[in-house]
Amino acid sequence: MNKEKEAGFMRMFVAHEPELRAFLRTLLPSWELVDDVLQEASVVMWNKLDQLENEEGFVPWAKVIVRFKAMHARRSVARDRLVLSEETVALLAEDTPDSNSERIHFERRALNSCLQKLSLENRRLVLMPYQRSGALWELAQRTNRSVNSLYKLLGRLREKLRLCVEQELITKGGES
């Protein structure tokens, strides 16, 4: 492989890494698993770089590899009751646009804005499951609350965030 092609791959990978991470997070239950899978997928991409026809096709090509690696990784964690079924994940992967970074940008801004509207305590609760596994269970232990009650509260907060994000996208023109 020549140096030019190597440099091109690195530029494309670094430019699209946040999008690939976001895509993986829709498919996988934890950020740790996202990191592991992205690392494995990047090695596969590097080894199969000759299959990439042009730079415009990088994201769809990379997402196929990432999705395959994610499905493989999911099988190893499928026993966890909080993991979505493979059918649901396949639907999510199909619904994800190949390249829509402007929409992702608007959605991120809307989500950040809506997160700031939550109290600090509620914001921490919403973010807790994404920071490390078992954090919600530990919080339940510390606060003498049931895990189920925390999940119910978390569900209500997520719904509130969803509605807020939708409203933000509509009012600020980020809706597609």
Describe the structure.
With 176 residues, this protein is mainly α. The protein folds into two domains: 3-95, Orthogonal Bundle (Rna Polymerase Sigma Factor, Chain: A), CATH 1.10.1740; 101-171, Orthogonal Bundle (Arc Repressor Mutant, subunit A). It has eight helices and no strands. The chain has helices spanning 3-27, 31-47, 58-77, 86-95, 101-117, 120-131, 135-143, 147-171. Helix 1 packs antiparallel against helix 2 (31-47). The termini are far apart. The model has no long low-confidence stretch (mean pLDDT 81).
The CATH class assignment of the largest domain is Mainly Alpha
| Share of residues in strands | under 5%
Can you tell me the residue ranges where pLDDT is under 50 for at least 5 consecutive residues? none
* Overall mean pLDDT: 81
Biggest beta sheet summary:
none
Please give the alpha-carbon distance between the first and last residues. 40 Å
Shape: globular
Strands, count: 0
> Could you give the order of the helices and strands?
HHHHHHHH
> What count of domains describes the coordinates?
2
Structural class: mainly alpha
The CATH topology label of the largest domain is Rna Polymerase Sigma Factor, Chain: A
